[in-house]
Amino acid sequence: MKKNILLLSLLSLLGLVTSCYDDSELRERIEKLENTTAVVINQQITALQSSIDALKSVDFDLKNEIASLENAGNTRQIEIDSLKKKIAELEATDGDHLAEIEALQGLIAALDSTDISHQNEIDALKEKIAELEATDEDHQAEIEALQGLIAALDSTDISHQTEIDALKEKEKELSQKIEELQKGVDSLKQWVEEILKNYSTTEEINAQFAAVQEQINALNVQVALLLATPDILFDVDGSIAYSPGTTVVVKYTLVNADETTEIECIADAGWKYVVTPAKDGKTGTIAITTPSTGGEGKVLVFVSSQHNTIMRVLRFEQGTLTIITNSITVEPQDTILTIDACTNVDYRVVIPAEAQSWIELLSIDTRATIRTNVITLSIKQNVSSQSRSTVITLVDTNEKELSSFTIYQRADVQANNEIWYTCIYDTIVNPKRAFGGLNIVSNTYVKGKGIIVFDGVLKTIGFEAFSRTGLSSISIPNSVTSIEERAFSNCSDLVSINIPKSVTSIGSYCFEDCRCLTSIILPESVTSIGEIAFAGCRSLTSFVIPSSITSIPNQCFVFCESLTSIIIPKSVNNIEFGAFRECTSLTSLNIPESVINIGGKSFEYCTGLTSVTIPKSINAIGIDAFTGCDKLTSITCLNATPPYAVDAFPDDVAQYCILYVPHGSKNIYTTAEGWTNFKEIKEIE
Question: Which helix (H) or strand (E) holds 315?
Fold first, then answer.
């Protein structure tokens, strides 16, 4: 009964939770919790309802089970009491056992009809009754057996009582859980109330909405005022780059303009402007003429209407355009050429009409920012035998030239205004400006080859033009006629040089100390070689003097220590002072019949010479001409009259060298000045 009351209380409480806030205003607010808080509350209430229903079902089952056990216990107690009574009657009398047996059988039958669960006990009793029918002895043992049975029944009753106690304990636990659920419901109710405290009432919300609406209305008024204010938009952003003395046109668009809107400008000193509205009254242009002096500037633009005026500023900075190089030489093949241009102004590339057949503008690409452009040109192959050039100009929007550069395209053959070369350092060689008044317009080094281009036909390579540079080879155009003094002196890495047939003169010291020069061929056009021209060319192994040369100049081949062969043409009539001095690798010498004079020290310290033939044309041999030639073993002098040779052959040479003279001239030589110190003189046929 208590449990029923408790369950009814829980149901009432649940009904109270779900109904105590059943008013339309509260429901409306809860529904506005945007399916979050309300959903959680409903889920918790549903869970509580399910728990309560489950508890009701369990409680109902427990009640039924307790009632059943109580009824079974009562029935068994009655049976025990009846059996005890019968036993007492048996102890009191031993008569008429048959009637008692029949009574017990009736009792057993009754027990069978009431409780099938006691069938085992009834069967035992039947067995005992059968024993009693068979014998009347030892009734006491039977009575004790019956008492044992009664004790067993008592034990069974105790077990049932234990089960009843356990069920009561479960009932107590369920009561505690119900109390805890009640506390949860109370806590939930309190939480809902706390949540609802944070929500305004309908009146408060309406008041807030009204305040917000007032603010919106005020903002609408301000927006309307702003929309009514005129403004102006330009087609440029930031500072405007310009070229001095040019006109910059800025397009504009008016905003919120009406028939009363006007535009006025104020410019810095030296700056001029013209405002030109379009027919629609909303667009137009402002043409600003910049000062020729350049510099930064600004123009103030005022836009006014009936009630408002605004000001905008156009700022200007002087534009620049810089080309990294002002001259470029390209190969004769088809070429894609790129040129870097640093600029902050708009410009276009102008290719001269006469060059448009072989140069085409492909693109102007921007790198990173507008201030760095890459101009890409396509240059067609030059199939002619002449190099060609053109000047590319960069002009601004007013066609004013900002910058320019020259493109030179060489032909497949060396032009007469070009020098081709290689450099030991694989880079350009910078010569001195000594080229007969010509200027260098480009000097490039591409793929291991350098090309110097001049602004005219090259005729002269002047004084020290390439002296002390890193040249390793050089090709001179066939327009050059003169290579002047020291033009290539001290080019210690120069290995080869191509001298064209147009060259007529080689200046003094021209190739002095070109230590790596292994060979050089002078064309027959060369008629003059300056003194010391090839001095110190220590790697030069052979040399052919052109037949146009008449004199081998002073110390021309001095210190050419690797020279093993020298061919002197019949045009030479004079070997000047020290011409072959210290040519230590020279082993033999053939002096032609045309030579009439051998200068002093001409072959001094030519330590490799073993024999010399002096032609009969020789009239004089200078002092020390063969001093230090300690390997000379024979000298053949073909002149029957001894040439003048005072101190030409020192004693250390004459003592160990055989002098061969024409037949019949030995006596003359033995007494002739300069020849008397020869120890052995022999005549030849």
Answer: strand 309-318
- Beta-bridge partners for 635: 612, 659
Domain coverage including residue 402: 321-409
Count CB neighbours of 102 within 10 A. Answer: 12
Both 314 and 333 in one domain: the answer is no
What is the C-alpha to C-alpha distance for residues 189 and 186, in angstroms, rounded to an integer? 5
Asked, for residue 389, whether it belongs to a domain, the answer is yes
pLDDT at 77 over 70: no
Which of 409, 427, 462 is at the close of a domain?
A: 409
Amino acid in the structure at residue 187 = S
Structure tokens at 304: 């006014």
**174 shares a domain with 42:** yes
Q: Do 329 and 308 lie in a common domain?
A: no
Secondary structure (DSSP) of 57-117 = HHHHHHHHHHHHHHHHHHHHHHHHHHHHHHHHHHHH--S-HHHHHHHHHHHHHHHHHH-GG
**In the predicted structure, residue 89 carries a pLDDT above the cut 70:** no
Residues 27 and 150 grouped into a single domain? yes
What confidence score (pLDDT) does residue 564 get? 93
Cα separation, 230 vs 261, whole angstroms: 8
Write phi, then psi, for 240 (nearest 5 degrees). Answer: -100, 125
The answer to whether the CB of 458 falls within 8 A of the CB of 487 is no
Q: What SS3 state is found at 162? A: helix
Question: Which residue's entry shows tokens 């010498």?
Answer: 589
Q: How far apart are CA 287 and CA 386, in angstroms?
A: 48
Q: Where is average pLDDT lowest: 17-21, 431-435, 471-475, 511-515?
A: 17-21
Chain mean pLDDT for the chain: 80
Q: How far apart are CA 553 and CA 546, in angstroms?
A: 13
What's the one-letter identity of residue 227? L
- Residues 154 and 270 both lie in one domain: no
CA 17 from centroid of its chain's CA atoms? 69
From the list 317, 318, 312, the residue with the least C-alpha distance to 252 is 312
CATH number where 350 lies:
2.60.40.10
Q: Which residue has the tokens 């408060």?
A: 204
Residue 455 gets the label, from left (phi > 0), alpha (psi -120 to 50) or beta, of: alpha
Amino acid identity of residue 362, one-letter, is: L
Please give the residue that has the higher pLDDT: either 372 or 35: 372
Query: Where do we find the tokens 């529904």?
Result: 31
- CATH number where 614 lies: 3.80.10.10
HSE (CB half, 13 Å, CA atoms) of 174?
25
The reply to whether 33 and 161 lie within a common domain is yes
The one-letter amino acid code at 100 reads: E
The answer, yes or no, to whether residue 642 has pLDDT greater than 80, is: yes
Closest CA to 389 of 349, 332, 437: 332
Q: In the prediction, which pLDDT does 16 show?
A: 43
Q: Which of 409, 432, 457 is the last residue of a domain?
A: 409
Please give, one letter per residue, the 3-state secondary structure of 491-529.
Answer: CCCCCEEECCCCCCEECCCCCCCCCCCCCCECCCCCCEE
Q: What is the mean pLDDT of the segment spanning 87-100?
A: 55
Tens-digit pLDDT profile for residues 208-266: 767 777 777 777 766 666 566 788 899 888 788 888 888 889 999 998 888 888 899 99
| Residues 166, 163: Cα–Cα separation, whole Å | 5
Total domain count, the chain: 4
Q: Are residues 54 and 193 in the same domain?
A: yes
Gap between the Cα atoms of 608 and 570, Å rounded: 24
Per-residue confidence (pLDDT) for residue 594, from 0 to 100: 96
- In tens, the pLDDT along 505-523 reads 999 999 999 999 998 999 9
